[in-house]
Design a protein that fits this description.
Number of strands: 0
Helix content: over 70%
Strand content: under 5%
Order of helices and strands: HHHHH
Oligomer: single chain
């Protein structure tokens, strides 16, 4: 079984991750708290172009993989494509993303508040991404 993927939805979902990140890490939202907890200095002189390009590529891969997983879940369970998208995204976030963040952050001794903030960011990102994919299913 080869998943049917709407690449326009994947492209828009990829861009949605960049928008969520731009809002989330704005100083007036969580940016200042994140910098303090992550021990990141503002204006350290390093260019953000490289990390932004990496984020764009990784966000595309995430969107593409989720679109495939969503289609497989939908094909197996049926029902609403949007509900399949949201449930698949939240379950994969909990079982993969959040679980891995919590494990790594515990071993690295990161502040629990940073772990919660990063996990919450990823949850919001995944939900928005899955919403975009879920409202724009493949044509086939």
């Amino acid at each position: 079984m080869i998943p049917e993927i709407n690449y326009w939805a994947v492209a828009v979902a990829t861009l949605s991750t960049m928008i969520v990140g731009a809002i989330w890490y704005t100083p007036k939202v969580f940016g200042n708290a994140w910098m303090r907890l992550a021990k990141v200095s503002p204006g350290s002189g390093a260019s953000a172009v490289g990390p932004i390009l990496v984020t764009l590529v990784v966000s595309f891969i995430t969107s593409w993989v989720l679109a495939g997983a969503i289609w497989i879940a939908y094909a197996f369970y049926g029902g609403s494509f949007l509900v399949a998208a949201l449930l698949t995204g939240v379950l994969l976030w909990a079982g993969l993303t959040a679980a891995r963040f919590i494990t790594h952050d515990a071993f690295e001794g990161r502040p629990p508040a940073l772990t919660v903030m990063n996990c919450a960011h990823e949850l919001v990102t995944i939900v928005v991404l899955c919403f975009v994919i879920g409202i724009w299913p493949p044509a086939g």
